[in-house]
Design goal:
alpha/beta, 12-stranded mixed beta sheet, 4-stranded mixed beta sheet, 19 helices, 36% helix, globular
């Protein structure tokens, strides 16, 4: 069986200008990054603003398991299937982070015959967006420490610095560090921290900003520290906004590439969904809606994280109204949720499947709370039996969901036609009445409690003393109207990754809260979630290499 990277390297890519021309995009509308990648120009984005919007389809999934779900693969394959049916669709995805690429799971461009390409370039440096975000983040950190070194005219309390440095790599040794050691000219010694770039507020801002003007306004609001009076000190106070915007100017432009079957794909931005808001850029999504009749996008990890944030943060801020949701599951993952060991997942086990389906059932119920029609798809494996598939289909239809089998990994767009037809049928026959889960006027504790009880199914929420102090402070500073961005492990509906299925009676434990004022939300850290992941015992980096001909191998 061929690996994903072997399939991608054997593919015949079309010049990106040909992909663009099929969308009515001219060479003047693009900024080319070689033969197969390009950025959409600001002029083009303004030009299409008057176009009518297409339909917005979100792809999400059950909680991830070691058995695999295939959310990105399904998103790509669904876009390819729309093309097979003669429908004009554009896919809108996030850019992969180098952290998981070299850490747990390797590349993130879809899989099998449902991939976006060039796969190696996308998974590595791509068009440099993440490097620009990292540089802008660390420029602000450098200017903050320099301001303190040069006399601290703003009266920054060095015990209340909240801005962290970042890098796009899993490096646990940088989570908690001490800087400023050495002589008098080397800065003030203090504790500092690193986060992964995809958790940076700069990443969130880039993905939520409508244009350069909005970008600069958001950058200006970033809270980097508090002064001795307890008042916020911002990036604007440090006179850092212009230089940061200069670094981010090109990164703001959505990237255009293609799938293996030449379906256009806008791949732009990449916040994690377990610690950040988990969605590609507003700019790319809105552009895709103007460029085609259908925009197919995804949100990271399970629907309890990515979809919730897509609805309650991205759609709320950008005024987006999704028309349908595709919820991805696999028989194998559901049996894993039912207690089957990974080695035994290929055997039929209806009792375990019935036990694990409660996870899928909960996600269906959650999505229906937003008033958007739901289509459930089973990403097919050869080990699935007719009885297992029938059991899942029966439950989904009883919940009022359409159901389809997806075989896009094996067959590309051809394997997604059943799903595409079901989505089209849903769009034609069912009208969405989108609504957010909570209103802006509620206080932060109420918003946290609603997400924890309504979406996760928690019995209650507990707060550390530090978290309560932080919440009270943020309310007094005027941030109480912000939505909450919950940082939680992705493997369970609870904040304990070992509680699979549909746990009940648990508490969500909030340990820390801080504001991302430029992004416009309040981050809530629960359980043991980390904003800088670590590498596993045997990282994916062990398998990655370059052969004598310059071909990358082992990426996935």
């Amino acid at each position: 069986m061929k690996t994903d990277i072997e399939i991608a390297q054997e593919a015949r890519l079309l010049p990106i200008m040909q992909i663009a021309n099929d969308l009515g995009i001219t060479e003047e509308d693009l900024e080319l990054y070689g033969r197969y990648k390009a950025k959409l120009s600001d002029d083009y984005l303004k030009k299409i603003e008057q176009n009518p919007n297409g339909k917005l389809i979100l792809v999400t999934a059950i909680n991830p398991t070691p058995a695999g779900e295939g959310k990105t693969t399904t998103t790509v394959g669904l876009g390819e299937a729309f093309g097979k049916l003669g429908k004009k669709a554009v896919i809108a995805l996030r850019e992969p982070s180098l952290g998981p690429c070299f850490g747990m799971k390797g590349g993130a461009a879809g899989g099998g015959y449902a991939q976006v390409v060039p796969m190696e370039e996308l998974n590595l440096h791509f068009t440099g967006d993440f490097h620009a975000i990292t540089s802008a983040n660390n420029l602000l950190a450098a200017m903050l420490d320099n301001h303190i070194q040069q006399g601290n005219a703003l009266g920054i309390d060095t015990r209340q610095i909240v801005w962290k440095r970042c890098e796009d790599m899993n490096d646990r040794a940088l989570r908690n560090i001490v800087i400023g050691l050495g002589g008098k000219t080397d800065g003030f010694a203090r504790e500092d921290h690193f986060i992964i770039t995809v958790a940076s507020e700069i990443m969130a801002i880039l993905c939520l900003a409508e244009d350069l003007k909005d970008l600069k306004e958001r950058l200006a609001k970033i809270v980097v520290a508090y002064n001795y009076a307890g008042e916020p000190v911002t990036a604007k106070d440090l006179n850092a906004v212009g230089a940061m915007a200069a670094l981010l100017k090109d990164a703001m432009k959505p990237n255009l590439i293609q799938t293996l079957e030449h379906t256009p794909a806008l791949v732009h931005g990449g916040p994690f969904a377990n610690i950040a808001h988990g969605c590609n850029s507003v700019r790319a999504t809105k552009a895709a809606l103007k460029m085609a009749d259908y925009c197919i996008t995804e949100a990271g990890f399970g629907a309890d994280l990515g979809a919730e944030k897509f609805f309650d943060i991205k759609c709320r801020m950008a005024g987006l109204k999704p028309d349908a949701v595709v919820l991805v599951a696999t028989v194998r993952a559901l049996k894993y949720n039912g207690g089957v060991e990974k080695a035994d997942l290929n055997r039929e086990n209806l009792d375990a499947l019935r036990g694990g389906m409660v996870n899928l059932e909960k996600h269906i119920e959650n999505l229906q709370k937003y008033g958007v029609p739901v289509v459930v798809t089973l990403n097919a494996f050869v080990s699935d039996t007719e009885a297992e598939t029938a059991m899942v289909k029966e439950m989904c239809e009883a919940k009022g969901c359409d159901f389809a089998i997806s075989q896009v990994w094996e067959k590309g767009g051809e394997g997604g036609i059943e799903l595409a037809e079901k989505v089209l049928q849903t769009l034609e026959q069912k009208t969405g009445h989108f609504q957010v889960l909570y209103e802006d006027e509620l206080n932060l504790k109420e918003k946290i409690r609603i997400v924890a009880t309504e979406i996760y199914g928690a019995a209650d929420v507990t707060f550390t003393a530090a978290a309560l102090t932080q919440l009270n402070k943020l309310e007094k500073l005027g941030y109480g109207s912000f939505p909450v961005c919950m940082a939680k492990n992705q493997y369970s509906l609870s904040d304990d990754p070992k509680l699979l299925g549909r746990p009940e009676g648990f508490e969500i434990n909030v340990r820390e809260v801080y504001v991302s004022a430029g992004a416009g939300f309040v981050v809530v850290l629960t359980g043991a979630i980390m904003t800088m992941p670590g590498l596993p015992k045997e990282p994916a980096a062990y398998r990655i290499d370059v052969d004598d001909d310059g071909r990358i191998v082992g990426l996935f």
